[in-house]
Predict the structure.
Amino acid sequence: MAAGIINFTRGVPPVNAFPVGDLIECVEVALKRDSDTLLQYSHAGYVPLREWLGKQYEVGPGQVLTGNSSLELFSFLVENLVSPGERAFVESPSYDRAITALRRSGAELVGIPLETDGVNLNALEDQVKEGAPTLMYVIADFQNPMGVTTSLEKRKRLVALAEEYCFWIVEDAPYRRLRYWGQDVPTMRSLAPERVLHLSSFSKVLSPGVRLGYAVGPADVITKLTRWAVDWYIGPVLPTQGMVYEYCHRGLLDGNIERLKQIYRPRLEAMLTALDDHMPEATQTRPEGGFFVSVMLPEGSDVTTLTARAREMGLLLTDGRSFFPNPDEGNRFLRLPFCSLTPAEIEEGILRLAGLL
Amino acid sequence: MAAGIINFTRGVPPVNAFPVGDLIECVEVALKRDSDTLLQYSHAGYVPLREWLGKQYEVGPGQVLTGNSSLELFSFLVENLVSPGERAFVESPSYDRAITALRRSGAELVGIPLETDGVNLNALEDQVKEGAPTLMYVIADFQNPMGVTTSLEKRKRLVALAEEYCFWIVEDAPYRRLRYWGQDVPTMRSLAPERVLHLSSFSKVLSPGVRLGYAVGPADVITKLTRWAVDWYIGPVLPTQGMVYEYCHRGLLDGNIERLKQIYRPRLEAMLTALDDHMPEATQTRPEGGFFVSVMLPEGSDVTTLTARAREMGLLLTDGRSFFPNPDEGNRFLRLPFCSLTPAEIEEGILRLAGLL
């Protein structure tokens, strides 16, 4: 190893994750069968795909909106639901692009400290009593950036608060199916389908380039969101929806996810081992799935200067401050994506990082 | 004919417009060659396509942003350039969805009366002197909804005003290449590349389902817009960009456009003849290309009640009011899309319409 750049910046899958041959066959078959629909305008997306997704969530296609990425669907939700000055809660830390979307909306952004089993409930209850939010954005499974999973107990309390104080929970679940060990925890949507808007995508389980995201929620919200989306761009890109539908319809998705787990599990193990071995002084999370481990560096560390020094050593890091609604709280925080690196590259990266501390 | 619904609502191509076989071959070849890129995240879109588009406009790829529809790129522009309360000018009438995007931004929307050779220049100059807009949205070729083309003289005056008063002209040109007779008029972009943001798409010349739009403009604006787009959705859908790139790269687009002209030209002729024959009392436009003819009905007509009565006769119309910033001005206005109807259907539709008047 030694030489070469090690990139710990973003959660990007490796290119060998993409089932290229199957996807080519699927797009060909889909276009041959249904070009009149797939090459034409649509509104809420490709109906067979919405029906297939609906079955996974035990709802009809009227409760499913597909779009060109779940991030964009989140922006649609924010534009629809949140008015300037209204409160929006996020886990602290949270997905940097979701924070950006909420900031852009003019919402009053409130971060609720995230612990290893979900947000701190006392802090959440205090904030809710001070002023209920319009929505709370939660990545309950293998959170981006921390890697932690919200416990069932905390999920129940979250949705109970949402029901009591009438706010929306936006449950973003792109990593949910990438569990490498342990047991699934029920989605918040399954606990309170009338209070939870569930977002997910095919980016992490199939291909990010297809930008295929979806929202599952109460029919009236999905209808409102669909109207807004029609005004915004008429309809989403369809040939790729046909391709992904055909792929799912053939039952290939589960096998692909199993294949990805075989690639990613050893990488997560390598990351955790390397952190134990080389950075015992940092506080790390111990995720059971997803793309990310995170570490809180020892007191006195400063990620901004660290990031600059790391770059000189061929180690690319994301400044942890971008994940916090209050950036100063991220001054010792690092997110470490492991999925696109080999175990050897991961160990080398952690060795370089440890050398810098 | 006689029975059956005749749909004069929206500008949707007929399904026989889509070159299905070629597109299937192109997506297969593109994915085989470049799956590592096309199935992965990107930012400004697929570089080979941006380069190909740049060549058409004699600019580099840094002046081209691709996205999931030109309508969405227009929304990106509006979000970037227009602050609430600022003035935005549109032709009156104009594309209803562009009007919606500008309204959503909180702009003060001003309609400049559109004549058969472009906007009324006196009205435009008066409005500019009253308060220059941040941008003016113009469909200079085969305008939606009127069908008219802005003359070279008026294009020159428009860009001269934009230069003098420092506002942007957004030139939306999706129909430009569908000219059935007469001569091309230079784009406004070619007259003032530093003051014009040019939008176009593949919806009308290839397939709307691919939702592939693009913006061409000064490098600094494209860079700013790209950053905003990355925050909004990371990057556009790519496999379809690979498909369309391959199609263009093989030199198939010109032939497809010629084929479309053979389909659409007789339909426009049929529409103009039917209007001459059956509705001589209405004032019609005489487009030389595009998707739409429009008519101003005789004094005393009312499109809202007409639309309801027409529906009972199996004739679907769009209420003309939606195309006007001041909806009341559209009370006698009808847009008549002809591209997806056969000449016989067009004549039947105009006969039904004439019968209602």
About this structure: The CA atoms of residues 69 and 211 of chain B lie 4 Å apart. Chain B touches chain A through 46 residues (CB under 8 Å).
